[in-house]
Amino acid sequence: MVGAIILILFLFAITQPILQHFKRRFPFFSVDLMNKLYWYHYVFWGFYFWYQSFNPSDSKTYYKDATTAYTSWFQAYGTDTYFIEFVGYPFASGLGFSYAAMMALFAWFGYLAFVFFYIFFKENIKTKVQVFRMDLITLLLFLPNMHFWTVAFSKGSLILLGISMFAYGMRVPQKRLFILTLGSLIVYHIRPHMFLFLGVGAVAGYFTGKEKVPFYQKLLVYATFIGALIIFSDKILAMGNINLEEGAIESFQDFAEGRAASLSKSGSGIDINSYPIVLKLVTFWFRPLFVDAPSAMGIFVSLENVLYIYLVSKLFDRKFIPYIKNSSSLVKMSLTIFLTSSLALAFVMSNLGIAMRQKSQVMYFLFFVIGSFLDYKRRMWLRKRAKKKELMAANANVVTHA
Q: Which residues share a beta bridge with 271?
C-alpha cells in the first residue's frame, strides 16, 4: 500500500505538465479544478480498494494473470480481457507493481478520461449552463458512479480513456489525428463492438451535421472509420458471434441471450434478462432507484440516477426535435453513439450490477447532447434579452429627442 501511495503522488507530479499544456492551449482550462478532480478520483480509488476486499472483482484475476500467466509481453496481446493484461504486464511483471499500485495506475487512466471529457464539453458548450445553481459541466465531472467504476485494474478505466480521447479528437480530427487514432485503438482492443458504434456515430454525425465541413475532412473521417471497420470486421463480428451467412440479427440475438445468461451468474442485483427491450433500456439508464438498492451504496447510486432522470426531462421540450435536426455533427454523433450502444448493451445486460458498470461508457454522450441543447436554449435567451435591451434603448432615445 505504501508503494501505491508513492505512485499516486508521483502520478500527481507528472500530471501537472499535462494540465499546464492544456492550459496553454485552452483559455477555459482550469488547472485548479482538475487538481481537485484528481484527489476526488483517488478518494474513490481508496473506497474501491476497500470494497474489493469484501466483494468479487475482475481486477484480482487480471493482476494474477498479468504476473503469472505469461512468459513474455506479447504473449498477452489480444482483445477484450487479454488487452487489459497486456497493458498491465510490463508494470506488474516487469516493474513488480503490487496489486494496489496497479489499481492506482489504472485509476490514473480513468482520471485522464475525465480531463479529456472536460475539454470536449467546454470546447463545445459556450455558455455557462447551470443546474440547481451549479455549473452543469462541473457537476457531471464529479458524478460518484462514474468515478467508482473507473479506478480499478479493469476495462472500465481504460475504455473510458479511449472513448474520451475519441470524443476529444473528433472536434478537429485532422489536427488531433494521433489522439483520435490512439483512443479508437484502445476502444477496439477492449470492446470491438464499441469501436463499431463510435465509427457509426462519427460517420453519421459528419454526414448529417449542419457545419460546412471541408470535403477533405469528411473524406478523412469516412476513409478512416470505414476502412478500419472493414479491416477489423472479422474481429467485431466474432465478438458478437455474428455469422452473416446465418443472419446477422439471428446470430446477435443468440449471442445476447447466451451472454445475458452468463452474466446473470454473477449474482449481483436484480435479474432483468426477461424484461422487454424498452424496460431494459430504462433500467440500463436510470436504475437502480431507492427500492432496488436499499444499501448505502445503492442510495448514492439512486440519487445519481434521479439526477439522470431530471436531466433527461430537459429534452422533453418542443424545441428539441428542431434543434437535433439542425445540430452540429458532434451532437448527432453523440446521440447516435448513445442510442446504438445503449441498445446493444441493454440486450446483453442481465442484472443491475452489470448495468451500473457498463453505462458509464455511454452516459457522457447523452450528457453532451443535453448540455448542448441547454446551451442552445440559453444562447437564444441571451440573444432575445440583448435585442429587448436594444429595443428599449432605441425607444428611450426616441422619447428623449421628442
A: 351
pLDDT tens, residue by residue, 136-164: 999 999 998 899 889 999 888 999 999 99
Radius of gyration of the chain (CA): 23
**Contact residues for 313 (Cβ-Cβ < 8 A; gap 6+):** none
Q: How many CB atoms lie within 10 A of CB 279?
A: 13
Nearest to 15 by CA among 125, 107, 142: 107
Q: What are phi and psi of 337, to 5 degrees?
A: -60, -45
Rounded-to-integer distance, Cα 150 and Cα 116, Å: 14
What is the CA angle 90-159-209, rounded to 5? 140
Alpha helix stretches (DSSP H) within 271-326: 277-286, 296-313, 320-325
pTM of the model: 0.86
Secondary structure of residue 175 in the 3-state scheme: coil
In whole angstroms, give the CA distance from residue 136 to residue 370: 10
402 class by beta-carbon count within 10 Å (0-12 exposed, 13-18 middle, 19+ buried)? exposed
DSSP code per residue over 97-143:
--HHHHHHHHHHHHHHHHHHHHHHHHHH--S--EETTEEHHHHHHT-
Q: Residues 38, 18: contact at Cβ < 8 Å?
A: no
Query: Tens digit of pLDDT for each residue in 164-182?
Result: 999 999 988 888 989 999 9
The amino acid at residue 12 is F
Query: In terms of Cα–Cα distance, which of 176, 174, 172, 181 is closest to 216?
Result: 174
Type and span of the H or E element at 131: strand 130-131
C-alpha distances in Å from residue 219, one per residue of 188, 215, 281: 21, 6, 34
Whether residue 392 is predicted with pLDDT greater than 80 in this model: the reply is: no
Helix (H, G, I), strand (E, B) or coil at 134: strand
Which of 73, 93, 92 is closest to 83 using CA atoms? 73
The residue whose grid cell reads 472483482 is 57
Distance CA 200, CA 122 (A): 24
Cβ neighbour number for residue 378 with a 10 Å cutoff: 16
Residue 55's CB is within 10 A of a number of other CB atoms, namely 10
Across the range 355-375, mean pLDDT stands at 87
Cell of 182: 490512439
Residue 243 near residue 332 (C-beta atoms within 8 A)? no
Decide if 163 contacts 361 (C-beta within 8 A): yes
